[in-house]
């Protein structure tokens, strides 16, 4: 028995930080991040790292004893930091940007702190309702049908997989209504030869075979040819296959080409196919009225994916899947174990009934935070600037003798080829590749490449919230100055 008036010591085996230590460590971390954001160009955008180098610096055994927070942050700086690719560097122009924003960092910290897990509405009303409302805002801002059902996934690959499952579910129901059944070994889907690999991967993951994702040929602008789509569907039907879905892309990965959605929607409707739209990158541009023409016909889609983590300055990962009729997702995924049964309410959405994962992170918080922080107005002005910069660069390329545009500039991606002395074919491929490597080696920019009609193209993807005209001008100067130095004949090695 403890003597009266004495508080028993708290025998705590927990290694958790006490509130004061947390406050101190947190302040140090925020200071670190603020400095990082204040001097984004103090570091090389791409590390000089070799595979295995970081792994070799780390101990082979897990830490046994607790380490002080200050030591962990110092080790992060010393050991991990030199191996980072700086996605939030203004010279990051590879792939598609996913640099996020400062409010996104705050939101992610808050989401981690409250750590709500969205299983069903009851497990976090905040998560469920914030997700519903922010996705309604996004649909409204992008001119998409306001009655579409939206749901946040980790990536567009997952979202597209869910769209294909919904398509299959609807086709199975139609077959059942006709007194038949869906032969899973005979399904086919369609997309363009320029579509992202995630569309094909969905068919592989579902066990229907990658080859059954038909790659429809494109026109001179890298957009799907509707006549070829119609012929492919008809040929498959005649061969006894069951076409179930078409995926059109608005903003392809290689060159941001835009498939002709109205014509594709007509074909999909005439064959009774699900129409999915992959606007993972370009969907953000739908908030700009002057870019809406690219999204004509989207209201006819059955599903639509856009990644706020690409060009809406939300931290990775945040991919939104909209669907016109969530019944098919529910029909595929509504399997509620007894311990998760709850009272039904029309306003209480249980997202677990519409997707593979049960537990979900509070991703809506960062979307809400970024939309609140910048407003549609603030986001629009950055997108407009990126598009202006891409057109500026494209103009310089068109006026130059040694460079050429490799694809039309639809959004904020510029694909170019370097053709010293007017060379073409494999010589221009090799010259462009050498130039890209030389630019990346400076550490000031990180560019990636694409293959367009079998030829190598340098991709300049402008999408970072910190990228401005000065960066694009510097890149153009660098491309020109390095061009002189890399202009040996790549095949003979002679200047
Ligand atoms: C058009 C398009 N669709 C899908 C994806 C896949 O995105 P995620 O990494 O979110 O799966 C990408 C990736 O860049 C893309 O460009």
Brief write-up:
The chain is of the alpha/beta class and 495 residues long. The chain has helices at residues 19-38, 53-57, 69-80, 102-114, 125-141, 156-177, 197-205, 226-238, 261-271, 308-311, 327-333, 364-399, 425-441, 469-486, and strands spanning 92-93, 149-153, 187-192, 213-216, 242-249, 274-278, 303-306, 319-323, 403-405, 413-418, 446-452, 455-461. Helix 4 runs antiparallel to helix 12 (364-399) and helix 6 crosses helix 7 (197-205).
Please provide a written account of the structure:
- With 495 residues, the protein is of the alpha/beta class.
- The protein has 2 domains: 108-371, 3-Layer(aba) Sandwich (Aspartate Aminotransferase, domain 2), CATH 3.40.640.10; 375-486, Alpha-Beta Complex (Aspartate Aminotransferase, domain 1), CATH 3.90.1150.170.
- The chain has 14 helices and 12 strands.
- The strands form 2 sheets. It has a 7-stranded mixed sheet, sandwiched between helices.
- The longest helix has 36 residues, at 364-399.
- Residues 490-495 have low confidence and may be disordered.
- Pyridoxal-5'-phosphate binds at residues 96, 155-157, 196, 198, 249, 251-253, 278, 280-281, 307, 319.
- Pyridoxal-5'-phosphate (PLP) binds at residues 96, 155-157, 196, 198, 249, 251-253, 278, 280-281, 307, 319.
Main sheet strand line-up: 2-8-7-6-5-3-4
Oligomer state of the chains in this structure: single chain
Strand content: 5-15%
Per CATH, the superfamily of the largest domain is Type I PLP-dependent aspartate aminotransferase-like (Major domain)
Order of helices and strands: HHHEHHEHEHEHEHEEHEHHEEHEEH
CATH class of the largest domain: Alpha Beta
| Broad structural category | alpha/beta
CATH topology of the largest domain, by name, is: Aspartate Aminotransferase, domain 2
Helix content: 40-55%
Q: DSSP helix count? A: 14
Q: Give the names of the bound compounds.
A: pyridoxal-5'-phosphate
Number of strand segments: 12
Shape: globular
> Which CATH architecture of the largest domain?
3-Layer(aba) Sandwich
